[in-house]
């Protein structure tokens, strides 16, 4: 499952180079943040940290969307059929590769047993302290710094004394 999410992340990152419209860039950023939230959710035993991270990223994307709508002109959204077909073929071939691979186990019984074992063996306090230890603490601190910089940027952009964002 993680390899499929990683390959999807690489595919969306490669699609980012071919996009030029702000709406398509925002959509790719939203998909990428969802994939990163899923990957971090599967790496840890609970999904609450990845859910909070996804909500924060969606809030930042909404701020960027409002800013781009108020500043950018009304451009037509041009969608390349060749790019779409090539990415769909790549995605379908990757899915077939994962399904046909012997290591890719579709048995839900084993995964349910693993999840029950994880939840029974770990206490909630250990799950919470895991986010404050070394590997996860850097993500937490970068998220705090990112939120602070975003807050300062939004306050500077939407200064009431300067008037509206777009002059008519």
Produce a short descriptive summary.
The chain is built from seven helices and no strands. The chain is mainly alpha-helical and 168 residues long. Keywords: Electron transport, Membrane, Mitochondrion, NAD, Respiratory chain, Translocase, Transmembrane, Transmembrane helix, Transport.
What does this entry look like structurally?
The chain is an all-alpha fold. It has a domain at 2-79 and 86-120. Helix content is 75%, strand content 0%. It is built from seven helices and no strands. The chain has helices at residues 2-16, 22-43, 48-71, 81-100, 108-121, 124-130, 134-157. Helix 1 runs antiparallel to helix 2 (22-43) and helix 3 packs parallel to helix 7. It is flat. The termini are far apart.
Which outline best applies? flat
The profile of the biggest β sheet is:
none
Helix fraction bin? over 70%
Distance between the termini: 50 Å
In N-to-C order, the SSE pattern is: HHHHHHH
Alpha-carbon Rg, integer: 20 Å
Class inferred from helices and paired strands: mainly alpha
Mean pLDDT: 73
Show unreliable segments: none
- In DSSP terms (H or I, runs of 4 or more residues), the helix count works out at 7
| Beta-strand content estimate | under 5%
What is the number of strand segments? 0
